[in-house]
Structures are given as structure tokens and as C-alpha cells.
Amino acid sequence: MRHKKYTSFKEIDNDLRILALQQNVDKETLKLNFRTTKNKLYPTNLMGGFGGIVQKLLISFVAGKLLKKFK
Length: 71
What we know:
2 domains; Glutaminyl-tRNA synthetase; DUF6327; 71 residues
């Protein structure tokens, strides 16, 4: 971290405002990343969404019927 020499309280206040804004931006970015990760970890999203689940069930059902016919 670099040390800055201030010549007035106005410069200090400006830097403090900048740091507070950066902190708020970082918090909001963290919240957004958390929500995005949380949504990606829902079971339906992990398996390709609801359409993906139906498609996998349908394929399993058809494969099962075909295997019974060939036995």
C-alpha cells in the first residue's frame, strides 16, 4: 500500500468517499455472485433444467422397453 501525503481535509474526504463507494460496489458484486451461484446449484439446473429431466426420464423409459423386447 502506498502512503499518500494529504494537504487538506478535502482530499482525505474525497479518498474516503471513493473507498466507501468501492466497498459498496464490492459488496453488491459479491451478492450478485452469490445469487448466481445459488441459482446454478438448484437440482433442476444441475440436471439441465426441467426439460432435461423429462428428456432423461423419457429416454430411460424407452431404453427399458427396448431392452425388455430384446431379452
